[in-house]
Structure formats: structure tokens, C-alpha cells
């Protein structure tokens, strides 16, 4: 037996494989067991990743005292039940983003994390991309000056290809469309960089998709700091992943081809970060140290399960990211009137008596 | 005497010289006379541009039957009186943008244009840049598909450098700050590309400037077509001039160094337009035919004065561009609630009895 942290993937679809590859690029965590309700899928996953054991039921997995944490990538609308069951079984829990689709579920999960005192991490990984880490350094050390405008876009063609066979097609399965799938990444990263959002103004449209969900959303974020942020997110165009920060001393412009980011140890190769200084038009390329977001977040999670690290994105951060999406959808219904983040979070609180 | 159209600049500051150079790059118009209340400035202008005559008063200029049109670049808050006086004297009138600072003034000017039947042009020239002309072609011929998201930014450091000695410092002289000075360009160009804006949602902030005007504004434009547009405009960062169109068949991304656009026959050299097709990540550079926006708009104006051309940007277009700015400022006061363009235009109508 190694001394690696013993984790178990739960839900063994495409994303579980992406994360498993990330975990196995390092030496810190071990995929000790796994579970899927589909036994054939589980056996195939065990073979692919050399996992010695698998559980026949979720209860069996959670009862195994050797398992220190679970990596949950089940469908978003199952997150609450799957997560809370694991928390109550005493496991550390990592879940893919978003924490849940509704703030009610998110708040219930956050309450369960507080009640159990468990280690809990949410896979808002894009903030770990080298370009965003570099942006944070420029903010912290003052090279950027004060940011007034932060603009971000994350879009792709998905909405033009959705069919009724996909859960993303349906409003009850994927409320918020492009925003809950794509824009939510920027909702976390912008708050990582610029602090908490105070309120959100947005317009959401269903323009070209045959599905039930919005494929074009624009949101303006008002930060507690006074800065303004913009998130554009759509499902009706070729892919875009961009973020620009406009500061009193410099601008930084980040551009990423996200189609390669599954291999997160190579993702930075498909990105550029450019700087432009006050009084100048020319731009310089900024060197980006290599990162590996999926590996790093799982190793951090594993070490946190042993009390040796702190989770960077926990329930609070994940609730705030989801709340930006929910506030945007609400604002769009109110003709763009700004919706305070705390209002949507508080309106979705459940009473303590409902446990 | 040549057969060139005989025009006269009124107001002979920096911008008059930029336009004069544009006019003199061609053979269509002639700077026949000129006027400034500062006689020394007028004499220097005449010497610089080889203009044979100058008027001692504005009335003298407008009474000269040989002058076919005037090119007005006086301060924005003088536009209404200077323009209407010229219209009533039977001259064709070109004015630099914006048409005026207030919609009340703009509507009065538009009414005078209708009443006199005069030729009237407003210098919203950025739509004539080669990148934007190319964007229009891609929209018209279908290569872009249907645009869902259109994002634009025009920002520079000006707000960090304003002093009380500059008229742009003052809220009564330059209401709307960065938006009336910079963002208004995109307000015209986006409507040129995508049709009329129906309503505007915005937040305006005064963050880092010592002046009285907003230095950070974000606006979401709802188009009659259903598409969404974003204009970010600030005065607290290094310069940016960008526009991205996200379409169902392709994206187009335009990036311009505007610090060179005074020499508008060279402006395109300082720009890039890139395309990205559906299903692809790679971008290709799009060739841009050479344009000369200042020369072209003045030649168009001169020929229109003779009934040989149609003005592309007249009172209606200019009122709509200004109205986007005014609606944005109004929306910001209403906490982001969308303000219909027609509402701000109609609320600023003056009764016909006030002539």
C-alpha cells in the first residue's frame, strides 16, 4: 500500500476520465476504488485506469473505511443527493462544477458541509489556468494598477447541435443554457481576480438553438470594489475563451483555445497572454509558467482530506459562482434591473428544520 | 475656378486640421474659405492649407454664395446654434460627431434639417474603417450567418489625465464621459452592422478619474433583430479599440490601434481582422481593402451638396447613436433597467411651436 491519498471516482463518464488522467499524472493521489450504477462502465473504467477495486453499490463504496474522498461527476441535477450522502458518510468530497443547478440545492450542500465539517471542493478549475494565475499576480503586485473594466467571453457552437436526446436540451435539466455550462467558469474566475460580485444585470435570449435553453447571454457584474465586469456567453458561434482586464497601469488580454483543455497539462500551450502598458499601443507576450489544473485541484483536494492543504474553491466560492448565473437569469426576467447576489442566495436558503 | 465642391471649415482647431488633410488628399472638394472667431488661428489655418480666403464673421461666411457647404468642428455644446444658423442660410452642413450632447439639441437640429431640406452629414466615421466595412459584407452575403453576440470596446487613458483646464472634465460640457467621447463610435457602427437598437441597459461609474464624468461604462444593447450587443468604454486604461461579432457560421474579430487614425488613409495598416469558422479553433487573417474614412466622408458630403451622392450618416443615424449614450446614462440611474431608445428620443422632442 502506498501513502497516496485514496480517492474514488463516482460517476464514470467522459469527465471522470478526464479527471482520472489528471490525477494519475501525479504521485499524490491514488484512484483506489470507483462506482457507477452501470457495472459494465465501471469494469471498463477499472481496466482503463488500473483501479483494483470497484463497488457494487454507492453505499458499499461509502462504507469502505480505506476511501478518504470521492470525486463526483454525476449529472448536475443529482449533485445534492450524491454529495450529501458522501458527506454524511464522513468522506471528503470533490464535485465537478457547478456545485448544483439550483441555489436551493447549493445552499443545502453548503449547510451539510458546515454540519459535517467535511473537506469539500468544487471543480471550478479555469481560475487555475496559467493566464488567470498570471493575471492574479499582476493584480496583487500592482503591475495592473486598479481594474475598472473586466471583460470575458466563453462561447461555442453547442446550442446549434443540441437534440432532445441530450439533457442539456432541457430547461429543467440545464437552466441557464450557455451560462450554466460555459459562462459560469468566468463567474468564478472574475470573483477570484476581482473579489465578490455585488449584483448582476443581464439579458438572456434563446435565438438560434432548437433547444429549450438560452443560447445568448450578456451580463454586467458590479463588484463590491466598484469595478465592472462583463460576461458574454453563447451557444451559437465558433468557440471563444477570452478575458481582458483593463487597469490604470496596464491591460492584460488572455485568449485560450479551450478545445485542448481536457489535457490540462498542455492547456497553456494553446493560450496567449498579452500585456499593454499605460501610454502605449504595443503589446508584449507574457510568459506563462506551466500549470495542470485538473491534476493540481485533485492533489490539493487529496492533501486537504489529510489536513495538509486548504481547498481553494469550496462551497462558498461555488455558491457565489452559481449565484451569478441565477442572478443573471433573474435580472433578464426583470428587464435588466440589477439583482443583488445576496438576494438570490438568501431567497434560496432552506430552514434549518429541513435537514 | 475648379469644379470642385466649395466647402468651408468652421472652427479651426486640431480636428479641423485632421479633416482638412483628409479633404485635400482627394480632388473632389476644395477648402474655399474658412472661419474662426480667432483671427490669428484663421490666418494660420489659411496658410497651412493654402486657403485663399477667410471670413471675418460667421455671418459673412454664410452669406457667401460661392460656399456650398460648411464643415463644423466647433465644441459639441455649440453645435445646435452653429449648425442651425448654417442650415437656415441654405448651406449643406457637415458636423463632427456627436451631433450634439443632448437629445434636445439633436432633435432640434434634425427638425431644422427636415424644415430646410438641407444636406446634412455627421462625422460618425469609424463605420467606414475597412474592418467594419468587411464585417458588413460578411453579414450581407451570409458568410457570418446570424449574429447573436456583438462585443465592442473603445477605451483609453484620458480620464486619468483630465484637468479642470479641459472642457471634457466637466459634467455639463461632456455628460457621459468616456461614452460620449469614445463609446459613441461603436453605438453608430453596431447599428450600421446589426440594425436599430431597441433598448439599452447600462452601468456607469466614476472610478479613478479626478474629473466630474464617468470613466467606466458597460452597456448591453438589445437589437430589434433579437441580437445582443455590448459596449465597454473607459477612460482609465491603456487604449483599446475592438469589435467581435459572433455568428452562427463564423466569428470576426477586429482590433485597431486608433492612435494612428488621424491619418485615415493609413489607419487600416494599424488594424487586423481575423475570421474563425464554425467547428474550428484556428483563425485566419482577413485582407482589408484600403479605406480613407475622413476623405471619403467629406467627398460624399461634397457630392451630396450637389445632389450627386447620398449622405450615409445623417440626422437620424446620429440621433440614434447619441440616444444609445443617453439611454445608457439613464439606465445606469435606474439600476440597469433597460431604457427604450425611442423613449429617450421622444422625451427630448421639442414642440413645433418652439422654433
Automatic annotation (TrEMBL), chains A, B:
Q: Which Pfam families match?
A: GFO_IDH_MocA, GFO_IDH_MocA_C3
Tell me which domain of life the UniProt entry assigns to the organism this sequence originates from. Answer: Bacteria
GO molecular function of the protein, one example?
nucleotide binding
Ranges of residues in domain GFO/IDH/MocA-like oxidoreductase: 132-252
Domain (Gfo/Idh/MocA-like oxidoreductase N-terminal): residue spans on this chain: 6-124
Q: Which InterPro entries match?
A: Gfo/Idh/MocA-like_OxRdtase_N, Gfo/Idh/MocA_oxidoreduct, GFO_IDH_MocA-like_dom, NAD(P)-bd_dom_sf
List, alphabetically, the PANTHER family matched.
CONSERVED EXPRESSED OXIDOREDUCTASE (EUROFUNG), OXIDOREDUCTASE
List the protein's name: Oxidoreductase
Amino acid at each position: 500500500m502506498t501513502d497516496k491519498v485514496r480517492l474514488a471516482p463516482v460517476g464514470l463518464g467522459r469527465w471522470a476520465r478526464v479527471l482520472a488522467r489528471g490525477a494519475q499524472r501525479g504521485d499524490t493521489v491514488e484512484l483506489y476504488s470507483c462506482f457507477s450504477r452501470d457495472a459494465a462502465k465501471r469494469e471498463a473504467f477499472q481496466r482503463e485506469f488500473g483501479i483494483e477495486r470497484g463497488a457494487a453499490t454507492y453505499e458499499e463504496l461509502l462504507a469502505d473505511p480505506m476511501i478518504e474522498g470521492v470525486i463526483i461527476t454525476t449529472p448536475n441535477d443529482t449533485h445534492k443527493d450524491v454529495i450529501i450522502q458522501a458527506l454524511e458518510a464522513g468522506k471528503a468530497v470533490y464535485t465537478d462544477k457547478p456545485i448544483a443547478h439550483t441555489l436551493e440545492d447549493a445552499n443545502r450542500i453548503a449547510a451539510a458541509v458546515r454540519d459535517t465539517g467535511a473537506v469539500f471542493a468544487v471543480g471550478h478549475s479555469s481560475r487555475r489556468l496559467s493566464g488567470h494565475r498570471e493575471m492574479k499576480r499582476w493584480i496583487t503586485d500592482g503591475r495592473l494598477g486598479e481594474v475598472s473594466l473586466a471583460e470575458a467571453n466563453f462561447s461555442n457552437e453547442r446550442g446549434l447541435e443540441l437534440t432532445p436526446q441530450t439533457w442539456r436540451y432541457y430547461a429543467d435539466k440545464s437552466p441557464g443554457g450557455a451560462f450554466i455550462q460555459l459562462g459560469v467558469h468566468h463567474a468564478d474566475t472574475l470573483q477570484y481576480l476581482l473579489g465578490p460580485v455585488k449584483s448582476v444585470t443581464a439579458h438572456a435570449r434563446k435565438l438560434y438553438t432548437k433547444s429549450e435553453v438560452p443560447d445568448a447571454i450578456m451580463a454586467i457584474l458590479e463588484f463590491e470594489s466598484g469595478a465592472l465586469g462583463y460576461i458574454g456567453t453563447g451557444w451559437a458561434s465558433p468557440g471563444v475563451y477570452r478575458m481582458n482586464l483593463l487597469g490604470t497601469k496596464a491591460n492584460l488580454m488572455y485568449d485560450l483555445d479551450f478545445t485542448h483543455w481536457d489535457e490540462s497539462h498542455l492547456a497553456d500551450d494553446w493560450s496567449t497572454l498579452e500585456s499593454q502598458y499605460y501610454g502605449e499601443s504595443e503589446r508584449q507576450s507574457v510568459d506563462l509558467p506551466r500549470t495542470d489544473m485538473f491534476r493540481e485541484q485533485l492533489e490539493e483536494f487529496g492533501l486537504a482530506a489529510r489536513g495538509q492543504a486548504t481547498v481553494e474553491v469550496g462551497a462558498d466560492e461555488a455558491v457565489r459562482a452559481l449565484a451569478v448565473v441565477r442572478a443573471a437569469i433573474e435580472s433578464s426576467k426583470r428587464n435588466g434591473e440589477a439583482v443583488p447576489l445576496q438576494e438570490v442566495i438568501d431567497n434560496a436558503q432552506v430552514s434549518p428544520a429541513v435537514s
